Automatic annotation (TrEMBL):
Cross-referenced InterPro entries: CRISPR-assoc_prot_TM1791, RAMP_III_fam
Protein name according to UniProt: CRISPR type III-associated protein domain-containing protein
Entry keywords, A to Z: Antiviral defense
Annotated CRISPR type III-associated protein domain residues: 91-257
Keyword rRNA-binding in record: no
Taxonomic superkingdom: Bacteria
Alphabetical GO biological process terms: defense response to virus
């Protein structure tokens, strides 16, 4: 049997990714590389990833509309926005469930990769805690108390969802864990030891390509937050450059650098829209 969502639609229509699809919906809900016994066909995972790596992802007009609304709000609140581009690959949401083992985070309406505001905030706080050499009281003032239930007080800065400035290029990548039997031994009654005699198991996953530009926006929550905006801009620059965003940052993923050209073009575009 095939999933209901294929039985009730034209299979020829849904059998191949098309430009007018919401890519996130397609990628997460219309996986069709199954074979008998609900196993995945040989190279099925790789084929599914490659179905969304040919060409740009996202409707430019919808992305522009979303950015115009977001940055209009940020500007009205007296906030700031900065354009940064990926130095290399960027991936977020690997821990999400998906038939190909590694998930991906998609914006629910735009169908493009993005970084949720909560993840953006967590990244900057983590950098401030571990590398920023910043007073703990100042960190708590800007980000709020750490941990649930400690206080009803919130931080002085609002962190918005990080969106791309235009359609995005995606790429396939692969990880090759060498000790899979050791990692999975909790599911087995036989105790296993990590060793070089195990065969590496290639696992493909989806990433954002290099040189893809995103907008990082913040705004003061009230009057006291206005004085924190300038210092946050520098913190964001340092955190994105040294700590990285998303998953696999320990091996170089998720590093960003300022995109001054995109910043100028975005400012001019917003002026024309206004």
């Amino acid at each position: 049997m095939i999933p209901l969502y294929q039985e009730v639609h034209n299979i020829k229509l849904w059998g191949k990714y098309q430009k007018n699809f919401n890519t996130g919906l397609w990628y997460d809900k219309f996986f069709h590389q199954w074979k008998d016994g609900w196993t995945i066909a040989e190279d099925g995972k790789k084929a599914w990833i490659q179905s969304v790596t040919n060409g740009d992802i996202g409707d430019p007009s919808l992305i522009q509309e979303a950015l115009t609304r977001l940055l209009s709000l940020v500007t009205t609140l007296g906030g700031s926005y900065m354009c940064y581009k990926t130095q290399w690959r960027f991936v977020t949401g690997l821990g999400r469930k998906h038939p190909i083992e590694n998930g991906f985070v998609w914006h629910h309406t735009l169908g493009v990769p993005y970084l949720p505001g909560s993840s953006f905030k967590g990244l900057i706080r983590s950098w401030a805690d571990e590398w920023g050499e910043i007073d703990s009281e100042e960190i708590e003032k800007i980000f709020g108390p750490k941990g649930k239930g400690k206080s009803d007080k919130v931080g002085s800065i609002i962190f918005f969802d990080v969106l791309p400035i235009k359609a995005i290029k995606l790429e396939a990548d692969v990880m090759t864990p060498h000790y899979s039997p050791y990692y999975l031994q909790e599911k087995s009654k036989i105790e296993k030891t990590p060793g070089d005699w195990y065969d590496p198991v290639p696992i493909p996953f989806l990433t954002v390509a290099s040189d893809q530009t995103f907008v990082f926006a913040i705004a003061p929550r009230g009057k006291e937050g206005k004085e924190d905006i300038v210092k946050l801009q520098e913190w964001i620059k340092e955190a994105l450059s040294w700590a990285g965003a998303g998953a696999k940052t320990a091996v170089g993923y998720g590093r960003f650098e300022p995109d001054e050209r995109a910043q100028r073009e975005l400012i001019q575009s917003l002026k024309r829209e206004g």
